[in-house]
Design a protein that fits this description.
about 200 residues, alpha+beta, three-stranded antiparallel sheet, 2 helices, 8 strands
């Protein structure tokens, strides 16, 4: 991971088969063809998984909209958020989110645990921070806080790790997606210095 790497050029691919409209981010250069292909394949797989979980293809789908947000594109790190909204009737539609964080130089995608030093108590530390934020914000939990999972959703934005949970996972639907931003400086002692969060410390 090269902290001096330039921003990756991101193009948009459109998939339109009304009532389905999906915008897909595509890494168009800025790194090796192998790394680019690795990232684009992971993105496509994630988009397809979201569509499948929303019931695609199904005649019940009245509307499906897929979008994305680039959260970090610097210092050899690409972190993005994929969003899929689908409406099949009823009181409201359903939105799914999935994020991917890559080493832009190799195309490797990082699970949350890979951001930290091996053997560090990262789960305990993150859970404590999240529980403190839940209490401070007085979030109405549906049940006891379950703790983060091995495949926990997250993204990197600026100098923060943002942990989030899906709709209905820990709070009522009306509260939307609960996000928990954690400054890299609050957890710098357990970060893998050569990982995507570690390079943000510079």
């Amino acid at each position: 991971m090269n902290p001096n790497s330039p921003m990756l050029p991101i193009h948009v691919r459109r998939f339109a088969a009304p009532p389905v409209h999906i915008l897909i981010p595509v890494v168009a250069g800025g790194t090796s063809p192998l790394a680019r292909n690795e990232m684009n394949r992971a993105i496509i797989d994630a988009v397809k998984t979201q569509m499948k979980h929303q019931g695609y293809p199904s005649p019940d789908i009245r509307e499906m909209i897929g979008t994305f947000e680039i959260k970090t594109n610097e210092r050899g790190v690409l972190s993005l958020l994929l969003i899929n909204y689908a409406f099949t009737g009823g009181a409201h539609g359903m939105t799914l989110q999935q994020s991917l964080t890559f080493d832009a130089d190799t195309g490797k995608a990082y699970a949350l645990g890979e951001l930290f030093k091996q053997g560090s108590p990262w789960e305990k530390r993150l859970n404590a921070i999240i529980q403190a934020q839940i209490a401070a914000r007085q979030l109405p939990l549906l049940a006891e806080y379950p703790g983060i999972s091995p495949n926990q959703d997250y993204y990197i934005a600026d100098k923060a790790l943002v942990i989030y949970f899906q709709l209905y996972a820990i709070v009522p639907y009306a509260w939307g997606f609960p996000y928990f931003p954690i400054s890299v400086y609050d957890i710098q002692d357990i970060l893998d210095e050569n990982g995507p969060l570690g390079v943000m410390l510079g």
